[in-house]
Amino acid sequence: MLTNFATALFGIADMWAIGRLGDAPAQGAVELGAKYMMALLNVFNFLRTSTVALTAQSAGRGDTPGQSETLVRALAVALAIGALLLIAMPWSIPLGLDLLEAEGRVRAGASEYIAIRYWAGPIWLGNCVLIGWLIGQRMVRQVLVVEVAANVVHIALDLLLVLVAHWGVAGVAVATVSSEALKFALLAAIVLRHPAAREFRATIRMRITWQQEALLRLFALNRDLFVRTLLLTGAILIFARTGAQQGPVTLAANGILFQLFMLSTLLLDGFESASQVLCGEARGARDRKRFVAAVKAALAWGGLTGLILTGAYLLTGAGLAAWFSTDSDVVAESGTYVFWVALLPLLGVASFVLDGVFIGAGWTRAMLGTMAVAMASYVTLLWLLEPLGNHGLWLAFAAFFLVRAAGQFGVLPRLTSRSFSACDR
């Protein structure tokens, strides 16, 4: 949770720094630019989640060489994807801005932001793999130290480049690129000191690393996670696009509220990461009792934390939102809709935790199915609730998480019985 909180400071620092300018179009540009980069990169977040699951399962089996092989394979995939993203850069940026319906000053600012931050994409992919591998090894404290260090640099650069050097939107983007590069260097140094990674070069040359069966397993897992994340990212992009259609003030307000939502999400994702590791280890060890205990503990503690976050946002949400802008219209608009952000931690926590359970256990196909159902419900509700304006948008977004959780709870007993039927203890 602390590691994810440190991660959330990236977006919070960016929105706060640009908000000090009192320029709604500039703040909206950072919001759209950040959403674009989230859409572009988060669909490849399977690099992190699959690495966590496969590393934890190898750890559960006591398979040290398997952990090294997972690292090598995942980094190879990250390198290939990063190269393809850079090749596609001239076409992907204007296409993304068209899809987000960015216009005028907002489009110009978002284009400037993306053109700079895009170059950190391959580094971000590498960080996903390294973080996933360390989490799978239960080395979360080391990840926390790196996140804190990178965020200190990021925040310092935000203050220097935006408020002192007056680089505006470009300053926010440069701060992000610089901190991502620092994070990669620190993570790589930690990973290479681990016993399972010391034979990195030898593992690359080993034939077993590139065996068809192992690669097919990796790609099958990554395929399901990729499509699932693509649907989730599509839901977020639709959210941003719908907000943009309501003008720069609503767009900026939704951007601030979305950062508060992401803060709570990243805190609750601590239980998702824990579920990935604990359930992955239990699946690797073929221990049903250990698996069920991990699921119950994660849901209980996650639910309690979600309730606490909801209460905290109900009491302080409006004040927190107002802190992110000096534009009175944006502040007033964010206060109107902050109630929805307060509800989301409680409504969404079950789906976050169960995502970790399903990934750790390797049930990615089932998770993809429940995501598809939730996405269909989300799009339908957006159409039905359009007369409610921005309230309808937030209501549909909240329902999206509830439908996901309902589907996951529905298939959980059957999947557990099937996976552990031959190894009950």
Automatic annotation (TrEMBL):
One of its GO terms (molecular function) is antiporter activity. NCBIfam families: matE (TIGR00797). Its main location: membrane. The gene is dinF. The chain crosses the membrane at residues 71-93, 113-136, 143-164, 170-192, 225-244, 256-278, 299-325, 337-359, 366-385, 391-412. It comes from the Bacteria. This is MATE family efflux transporter. It is found in: Membrane. Belongs to the multi antimicrobial extrusion (MATE) (TC 2.A.66.1) family. It is a multi-pass membrane protein. Keywords: Membrane, Transmembrane, Transmembrane helix.
